[in-house]
User: Fold this.
Amino acid sequence: MNKFVFLPVLAIALFTSASGQEEAETVEAPADPQVTVETSAGNFVIELFSTRAPLSVNNFLQYVNGGFYNGTVFHRIVGGFVVQGGGYDTDYQLKTTRPDIPNESGNGLNNRRGFVAMARSGEPHSANAQFYINLADNLPLDPRPTRWGYAVFGRVIEGMEVVDEIGYRPTGAGPTPELGKDVPKEPIVITRISIVPAAERLKSVADETPAAD
Assistant:
């Protein structure tokens, strides 16, 4: 079943897929690894917070190492809110994923501009492969004492101008109703996501990771 999540003013949608694949082994990676996201609109680099969000980062890296994201699209753009991808191929067919992962939204990281988080359905522990990048400070997506939030696990440390440009792309109705009205009119393809070798890692844009309010 396709699901939507509605929060005050803002919404993150995750379209579910089959979870028939077996869970992969833990990925060995350095603390706070970095990945390069190569797209048809340009490239950017994400730093992953393996200490704060170990389950989300390991899950993401499993998909990266398996080539899952290669040839997927950013299927949802909401200007001034988020850019979302990682679930659909270039024919807008939903890809089969591994099992869902536990929600790590209580890790002290905020949904601020440039930060990357797991998309999910209304069930708090339903994230699998889809992720989104915040185009603005979206603090209503953070957890509250009475509800789960959306788990932040990384941030863009280079190429945010590429993400911003993607965020301005015109959108419209998708090829199927469940995709909604925020699908880019011209497909934006993720051609490849790869781990940055240790010798080529970039210096982080900030000395410390911002804590939760």
Remarks:
- Residues 1-10, 17-29, 206-213 have pLDDT under 50 and may be disordered.
